[in-house]
Design a protein that fits this description.
By secondary structure, this protein is of the alpha/beta class. Helix content is 27%, strand content 24%. The strands form three sheets. The protein has a six-stranded parallel sheet, sandwiched between helices. β9 and β10 form a beta hairpin.
């Protein structure tokens, strides 16, 4: 039985860079990689996975109501490993499918994503991964104050935003990785 792996961190913790490097390493070793991402993440294009450091690759996409097993049936047969970026946008059912794929097809599944949203609530996909993954690894990031950044704070010109819709795509222009204390005190970059 192969592992279902969840590598999580706050924004800016090099999740996507790590994901892309793992893809490259697997391909360099002759493995056939099924590279996926949820279609809701279209910041860099519908099928592009791009890191802030400039590396990128194309990926197959899936919608929130897709069955991964059905949509990628042929690719699952031919692949050696599955790698998924932005997995937090996946549904509980999709995570359960990934667990079944890792066990039933004996294919390792590596997932990368956020633990919580900007309100500090677990994403549905991340929550189920914490419950089912055989390997869970945090990719650490520091807050500007030096503490561990565990919050993906959404902000605007007025400061930290505490209410709003769960999904609002953005990068450094809308989000800042903070420790919980700085988040609760409303500090972005050491300013109130």
């Amino acid at each position: 039985m192969a592992d279902l792996v969840f590598k999580y961190g706050s924004m800016g913790s090099s999740k996507t860079a790590s994901c892309l490097m793992l893809r490259f390493e697997c391909m360099e070793n002759g493995l056939n990689v099924l590279f996926l991402k949820p279609s809701i993440d279209n910041r860099d294009g519908v099928s592009t996975v791009k890191s802030r450091i400039g590396i990128e690759a194309d990926a197959f996409t899936y919608d929130a109501d897709d069955s991964i097993s059905r949509k990628f049936a042929n690719e699952l047969i031919d692949c050696d490993v599955i790698i998924i970026d932005e997995v937090q946008f996946s549904s509980k059912k999709q995570i359960e499918e990934l667990k079944a794929i890792s066990e039933g097809l004996d294919k390792p599944v590596y997932t990368f994503g956020l633990r919580t949203d900007f309100k500090t609530n677990l994403w549905e996909g991340s929550k189920r991964l914490f419950e089912l993954a055989t390997v869970i690894e945090e990719l650490p990031k520091k807050c500007f104050c030096g503490n561990s950044a565990i919050v993906n704070a959404r902000y605007d010109e007025k400061g930290i935003v505490y209410d709003g819709k769960q999904v609002e795509l953005g990068s450094n222009d809308k989000y800042k990785a903070l420790c919980y204390t700085c988040y609760k005190r409303g500090r972005v970059n050491g300013k109130r």
